[in-house]
Amino acid sequence: MPGGVKRDYRGNKKDLPVRDAPRNEYTSMFEGFRDELDKHHDRREKIVKVSRDVTALSKKIIFSLQRVRKLNQPLPDNIVKENEERMSEIKSMLATIVDDVSGIRRYRYNLMCLEEFVEAISFAYYLEHQRLITPETMQSTLGDVNIPFTANDYVYGLFDLTGEMMRFATTVTALTGSIPTGVAAGAEDVQTGADAPRNILGDLQDISSMLQLMQLNDRTYFKKKDVMIEQVRKVERVGYGVTVRGNERPKGWMPDMNEDAGHHDDGSAE
Amino acid sequence: MADNTNTMIDPKIFQYLQAHAEEQTEVGDKLTQIITGFNRHISTAQGHLSRIHATPLQKLGPLLSQVESEGIKPAIESIGELNKFASNYPYYKYNFRWRSAVQNLIYVMLITAWLGGLSSESKPGELGRLLRIEEIGEILKVPVNLEDRDAFHITIEEYILALTDLTDELSRLAMNSVTMGNIDLTVRISQFIKDLFAGFQLLNLKNDIVRKRIDAVKYHVKKVEDVIYDLSLRNLIPKAAEQV
């Protein structure tokens, strides 16, 4: 039986017992393969660890942001400060694997954390500017950490953003009695004939239709698309409810957030 | 502060997403087209190769030439096309599309060469010859185990998986060779599979497809050992062959 790597309780490799099987014509070939495969496995393990930590930090950023109550305003100082610390931690962790995911290796290893990171950053950007972050701006948040986001990191991060927008819309609407809306347009906008301030429901509908129009052809896309459409519908119901009977509800009344929590992939709402 | 323009989405973002989706669709369609032809050539080769179990070693020559001319040669052209096209895109983004086809081709080449085919001017065909991964790369005219640049290549995993296909098929041939009266060949296969098995044991494996396939090699060894046991019990193994 070919053995796996023996590890101690901390996950460090234990030295393998020396095998003294007789050498044959192919021994050195397999030794070469072993070295290559070991390099690959070690790299993957290192990346998985970093990815897990970056995912956890990104989720914490998102939790903080869900405590924001206003749209299109500078974020509260304490939240900005907390999240800046998390960002610099994320950057220093990603910096340790730049070489492991560079060049041909960028697509070789699964860097799931970047999707989560895009979700966190695009949510922060949306809350502050009420706009969708561009891929270039997203890339610039990593500073000199040279790990390019792939198009899929960006796209799937945006799909997850819609979930955060839904949660934010639902909570803020329940607490304030009106759906989150941007601040009134300035004089400049009046001159250009821009419309009244947008609200989050319209923004969600915009993102949703854009992501449906792009039409990727893979399973993740179809799955995330279905979840997103359900989220948009939910905020539509919130918008309707607040329009028709908004004032009848006591302030602070919270809808049951669990009613279709099963639709969200990670359940991080609670 | 409100932004100057009252739109949620910069049109550049939509363009970016569309370009991404279009590339994925176009690359996917083109790969399907190349890989369909590729698989057909491999099936042709495998179809011919299925006759090795009913063809005595002395008569294998014409069969192997047929495998080479009708299967391997056109498959090499497919690989060339794949190499040229796929090298324009990140290798690991799309390699799941052709992995099994490439692995099957490597296997076809390995068994053809082991049976004495795929001779070249520098390397005459010879029974029991194992093509190394570098030789596979030379014949296919593509790099192997590429790390320093992003282009099409043959991976070590593909080669290792093809080796397990080889031990599987040879373990079957070991038995059929007895039926065809060539016990020398059975003994030879037995030694070869044992050598490869010893090699596989040097690898540190994770719980993945490579491990799963290599775990099966012990059954190939056992299958051949059972045949050898049956033969030695009845004193059917020639003395000379025993020493091979």
TrEMBL record, chain A:
Gene3D superfamilies per UniProt: Translin, domain 1 (1.20.58.190), Translin, domain 2 (1.20.58.200)
**Entry similarity comment:** Belongs to the translin family.
Compartments in which it is found:
Cytoplasm; Nucleus
User: Residue ranges of region Disordered?
Assistant: 1-21, 248-270
Domain of life per record: Eukaryota
GO molecular function annotations of the record: sequence-specific DNA binding
What's an example GO cellular component term for this entry? Answer: nucleus
What is this protein called in UniProt? Translin-associated protein X
User: Which ranges are annotated Basic and acidic residues under compositional bias?
Assistant: 260-270
InterPro entries found in the cross-reference section: Translin_C (IPR016069), Translin_fam (IPR002848), Translin_N (IPR016068), Translin_sf (IPR036081)
- Per UniProt, which keywords does this protein have? Cytoplasm, Nucleus
UniProtKB/TrEMBL annotation, chain B:
Localization recorded for this chain is: Cytoplasm; Nucleus
Q: Name one GO cellular component term.
A: cytoplasm
Per the record, the coiled-coil ranges are none
Gene3D superfamilies, per database record: Translin, domain 1 (1.20.58.190), Translin, domain 2 (1.20.58.200)
Species, as recorded: Neoarthrinium moseri
Keyword annotations: Cytoplasm, DNA-binding, Nucleus, RNA-binding
Molecular function terms, GO-annotated: RNA binding; sequence-specific DNA binding; single-stranded DNA binding
Look up keyword DNA-binding and say if it applies: yes
Protein family according to the UniProt entry: Belongs to the translin family.
Q: Which PANTHER family match?
A: TRANSLIN AND TRANSLIN ASSOCIATED PROTEIN X
Protein known as? Translin
GO process annotations (BP): RNA metabolic process
Please give the superkingdom of this protein's source. Answer: Eukaryota
Q: Does the keyword Nucleus apply?
A: yes
